[in-house]
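Input chain follows. Return structure tokens only.
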Amino acid sequence: MTAQLNPRGDVAVLVPAAGAGVRLGPGGPKALRLLGGEPLLAHAVRRVAAAPSVRVIVVAAPPADTQAVRELLAPIAAVTVVSGGASRQESVAAALAAVPDGPEIILVHDAARALTPTGLVESVAAAIRSGEDAAIPVLPVVDTIKEVTADGAVLGTVDRSALRAVQTPQGFRRAVLAAAHAAAVDPLTDDAGLVEKQGVRVACVPGSEYALKITRPFDLALAEHLLHAAPAAGQP
């Protein structure tokens, strides 16, 4: 059954999904790789669509696969699909341009975070609704972190107490994200980085270990395990 998004919701979710996924190994675009017999993108969109605050979902698909992505997502949720760009930043900008008037809270979510709980979508949206200009989900860094030279020699140990691993969805006031993209010069790996360059405060909310990014074959194997273990653990 196709999920009907909340027409009174105040959130638009952008899903850049045009990446090749080279680190995942040979195959098609990463968002269309299979997890539990279903593309990563389908898992991600289903969880986002279940969030009560979400009014609009825009997916930036690989240009050669836009129609296939429309057909894939049509049974899951009412989604707008646009052609993505050569970079993540270009894909987000293309998706943002397709958001209709109305939603003033914009979330940007990685298709590769296919198991992100719906509750995390709501937590990030709630932070923006409460008055933050930008908010990101984070987890504490648990490994010891070393700073090293180009040839692999250790320069020192980094204090990890103030470090956090960043996840998605990342949330923004619409005008803040639009201004950051308009002013962008150098490509960055996330939209919070663009906003930070504009001097905007970025708040943190607790992340979820289920929101892992599927980047390498091991990540995909771990996600397969979590997908099957999730119901027993009470996870969505």
